[in-house]
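Q: Convert this sequence to C-alpha cells.
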Amino acid sequence: MCPTTSATPSRNSAGWCFVPRCRRPGGTRRSPRSCTPPTARCFARASRPAIGCSTPTGTRSTSTPTCGNSPQTSRACCGPWKPGAGCWPGTRPYPASNADFSPGSADIPQVVDALSLLAQELIPSPVPDVAPLSRKYARLAGWQWLADNHADELDPWEKQHLDQLIQNDADVPAALVGESLVHADVHELNLLVDDNRVNVIDWAWSRTGPVWIDAALLVVRLVAAGHQPGEAERLVSGTWGIQHSTAEPVTVFATTTYGQWRRFAIEFPSTHRDAPLRGARLWARYRLP
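A:
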C-alpha cells in the first residue's frame, strides 16, 4: 500500500509507489523539501528494499524521516509530516538499525542486494521531472576551484594528477548521463537494516543518472569504514548496476567525487566529512594511481 496522503500516489510496473511532488499555486513543480505543508516522495515495496522517503523537514541537516531517534535505532515513516507530530498520518513506525559497513559486517550483503535491486527496477525513472545528477556534479566540481583558490594546499599526488583531475571534472557530465532514478546519497544513516530487509530512506537528493551510481557511492563509504579500495569494489562487483558499467566513467566519477569532498572540506569544514573524504581519497588514488 502506498501511504495515505493528500496527493494521489502512482505505481510503476515494478510495484514501487511514489507520491508526486507537490506544486506551488499555478502548478509549478517544487521540491518535496520545500512544500507547505511538507509532503514526502515515497517509495514502497512489499519485498526488500522496503521503503524509502525523502526528508520532508525543509532542512539538509535531518538525515532521516524518523519518529523518534536514538544513536542505534530509528523508526522510519513515510507520508505527510509536521514537526513534533510524531509518526505521520497513514503510516506506522518501522524499527531498524543504521547499516554497519565495517569489515565483516553481515549488513553489507543485504545492502549490496538492495542497491542492486534498486538499480534494476528504477530504470527508467518512475518519477517524472527529476533533475539529472550530471548537473549537480558539474556545478560542484572541485579541482579547478582548488587549483584557482587553494593550489598551495594540494598534496603531491594531487599536483601530479591535477591536469587529469580537472579534465575528469569536465568529462563528468557525459559520464553521468542515464535514465535511472538514483538515490545519490548512500551512507549508513540512510540505510536501515533489520533481520530480513533493508530500508533505503531520505530520497531528498535523488536524481537521474547511470544505474551504477549508488553502488559506486557505496564503495566510498565501505572504504571510509575500513575496507581496502579493491576489496570494496569486489563487494559491489556483482550488483546489477556495476555489471552494466564500464571502467572509464567510474574512474571519472571517483576522481570528481574526491574533488567535491576536497572542496567541501575547505568551504564547509566539519568533522562529519572526514570519513567520506578519506574514503573518496583512497578510492580515487586506487583508480588513478
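Residues 1-92 have pLDDT under 50 and may be disordered.
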